[in-house]
Design brief:
Helix 4 packs parallel to helix 6. The strands form 3 sheets. A 6-stranded mixed beta sheet has the order 3-4-2-1-14-13. The protein has a single domain, classed as 4-Layer Sandwich (Deoxyribonuclease I, Chain A). With 255 residues, it is α+β, with helices and mostly antiparallel strands. The protein contains 8 helices and 14 strands. Strand 7, helix 4 and strand 8 form a beta-alpha-beta unit.
Length: 255
């Protein structure tokens, strides 16, 4: 199978930028979407033209036009769940998960700490709860988790680490520690394992020609539980694909 992940920064916006054409040519069998910014009925409407080849499942936020995740799959999963089962977090539609029998596929849009880091305490609580959620799933069967984790884990994962450290959302020590705890808790950052010294980004600000200058951040990940890791093939960051301020990430997976 080929698994994919993409923060589309608005599903209704990305479909106007040949999302369907990219998906048809991508070879992806299962795609996790983040930041759909739409209610469930709006997600279905936006993706209606993809046709009957795709099964669609979405989790929307109570707040309209905010957050949201979805899964598109050529194969119908055995079960689909929404959220992590924690009140206060699940109202934002940040997790959609599909059980494909042999493994769990989870797509996540991790909370951004926001300007002035005013949402950092919420984010830190999320990191603890989400780790516990993934570990519970991993007790059942292999887990593949993809999505926008809203953190650059190491200095190599962003263009200007010194200027952003402990000042900018996504590169504070608390956020770094949150991902470190998850990795220490039985999960692997598959792309970084395969590319220990490579510099590549998956998000670029719309400001100042950042993408053209490749002043970016690696915020989008595939994580694998210990039992899933042997099934994980090459991971690619598709930096040449436009349509959002993030680019897609894809990974081969052998069931």
């Amino acid at each position: 199978m080929k698994l994919g992940s993409w923060n589309v920064n608005g599903v209704r916006a990305v479909v106007k930028k040949d999302f369907g054409g990219w998906l048809a040519e991508s070879g992806v069998d299962v795609l996790g979407l983040q930041e759909t910014k739409a209610q469930d009925d709006q997600v279905r409407e936006a993706l209606f033209d993809l046709g009957e080849d795709w099964h669609l499942y979405s989790s929307s936020a109570f707040k309209k036009g905010y957050s949201g995740t979805a899964i598109l799959s050529r194969t119908e999963p055995e079960a689909v769940t929404h959220g992590i089962g924690v009140e206060g977090f699940d109202e934002e539609g940040r997790v959609t998960a599909a059980d494909f029998g042999g493994f769990h596929f989870v797509t996540v849009y991790t909370p951004n700490s926001s300007s002035g880091l005013k949402r950092l305490p919420f984010r830190m609580e999320w990191d603890v709860a989400f780790k516990s959620y993934l570990q519970r799933l991993a007790e059942e069967k292999p887990v593949v988790c993809c999505g926008d984790l809203n953190v650059a884990h190491r200095p190599i994962d962003l263009a200007r680490p010194d200027a952003n450290y402990n000042k900018t959302p996504g590169y504070t020590q608390d956020e770094i520690d949150g991902l470190t705890s998850l990795l220490d808790g039985g999960f692997a950052d598959v792309w970084r394992m395969q590319n220990p010294d490579r510099v590549q980004y998956s998000w670029w600000s719309y400001r100042g020609g950042a993408r053209e200058k490749n002043v970016g951040w690696r915020l989008d990940y595939f994580l694998a539980s210990e039992s899933a890791l042997p099934h994980c093939g090459p991971v690619e960051i598709l930096a040449s694909v436009h349509g959002s301020d993030h680019c897609p990430v894809v990974m081969d997976y052998t069931r």
